[in-house]
Amino acid sequence: MGSKNKLKRFIENDSFQNVIQPSRDELITKKFKFLGNWNKLVFKNTNPIIVELGCGKGEYTINLAKLNPDKNFIGIDIKGARFWRGAKTAVESKLSNVFFIRTQIELLNYIFNTNEIDQIWLTFPDPQIKFQRRKHRLTNPNFLSLYKNILKPGGIMHLKTDSEFLHGYTLGLLEGMSIKPLFSNHDVYKNKNAPDEVVNIQTHYESIYLKVDKKITYLSFSFND
């Protein structure tokens, strides 16, 4: 993407009412006014909040929101030029239950309060296969601790990926934590019991993977109270 296009998207993001771009300083000094107040100040309802981390173009966030008008959705990514597409689609589709945040996932505890979120989706995150990159895996123990903190008791984690490595790595961590998955499958499109929201929504790259018969895995679980 050219620099002119990126700049145009950044400018347009600033005009969208559904895009929130807090500074790092605003977050770590706890001056972020929406912390703990997402239902009250942003969505202005008491509906459940579902978050997609590393949302990219926002395809999953948008489609989940369309399927579930009685729930609130937040897509998070550090690259605003990417989620610009999702934010624009939400505006064009008049979806009032969708917001996007430009921030780092490491700062989740400064974005959401303890027990504020009902579900978290991880859709096709970078598996970070190399050992020296393990601290960046979005299901490593540090990130799982972050997710557990902001999720309500019984809240659900979803992991959808084309990486058998990441799927297996996450299952191993859950076993070590004595957590039994709610659902786990290594080829979810061939599983008749797969949830509708898993097989009825596809990202752009996922559709490409499926055309070459690449397996898509899916895993969901809740943390022990």
Describe the structure.
The chain is 38% helix and 20% strand. It is α/β, with parallel strands linked by helices and 225 residues long. It has a single domain (25-222), classed as Rossmann fold (3-Layer(aba) Sandwich), CATH 3.40.50. The chain has an eight-stranded mixed sheet with strand order 1-4-3-2-5-6-8-7, with helices on both faces. Helix 1 packs across helix 5. The termini are far apart. The mean pLDDT is 94.
Lateral strand order in the biggest sheet: 1-4-3-2-5-6-8-7
Number of strands: 8
Task: Provide the CATH architecture.
Answer: 3-Layer(aba) Sandwich
Strand content: 15-25%
Number of domains: 1
Going by helix content, strand content and strand pairing, the class is alpha/beta
Main sheet: strands, sense, barrel: 8 strands, mixed
Shape: globular
Mean pLDDT: 94
CATH topology: Rossmann fold
CATH top-level class: Alpha Beta
The residue fraction in helices comes out at 25-40%
Instruction: Specify the number of helices.
Output: 10
Radius of gyration: 17 Å
* Low-confidence parts: none
Q: Tell me the series of helices and strands, N- to C-terminal.
A: HEHHEHEHEHEHEHEHHE
Name a few traits of the molecule.
globular, 8-stranded mixed β-sheet, 225 residues, alpha/beta, Rossmann fold
